[in-house]
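To fix ideas, we reproduce below one chain and its tokenised fold.
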Amino acid sequence: MPHWLQLMIDSLPLLLWAAVKFTIPLTLLSFVLGLTLGLGTAVARLFGPRPLELAARFYVWVIRGTPLLVQLFVIFYGLPSIGVLLDAFPAALIGFTLNVGAYTSEIIRAAISSVPKGQWEAAYSTGMSWRQAMTRTILPQAGRVAVPPLSNTFISLVKDTSLAAAITVPELFQSAQRIVATTYEPLILYIEAALIYLAMSSVLSTLQGRLEVRFARYGGMLEANR
């Protein structure tokens, strides 16, 4: 068996374990928390009082205008200088959540704005409150619009978690770096790590396509029933 193939086989369990233990949980938690933050930020920008709207705008402006790697460094390496000490995983989770929240807020805001005003009027005419109209009428329609870009954000997040290696989170990419430090085979190990990221992204892309088809059918049924 070729040396490179044996090395890939030997290192595969370690890389997969790092993905299961750190990469996947970091991705899922960051996306769920970021999506919640993004929804709140979008609502604040669209319907909140002026001070809250300005705060939301400032948050989105700062996060979208600075690199994710710099944000992670500020949280993990910068905050200890003012007495805020965080372990690597929580620091990465906070950084990714804030980053995802800013980007998803723009997606959700655009999706909510795309819903015709007549839908609000129709909801109010049936006696719904603002909250009921939002949750029962507006968000389901906005969700169909937001699914493709949100799915792309999730897939990008899977790959972006490799940046957590820079703040010592032992996820997939840092595990590859550690193996490289002992084997001195960077090309083989980094290609293997890239293939694992590619496999995860491919699976998610397939699921995204199926989800979009399902939402398209649901949207067609709603249009037919109007």
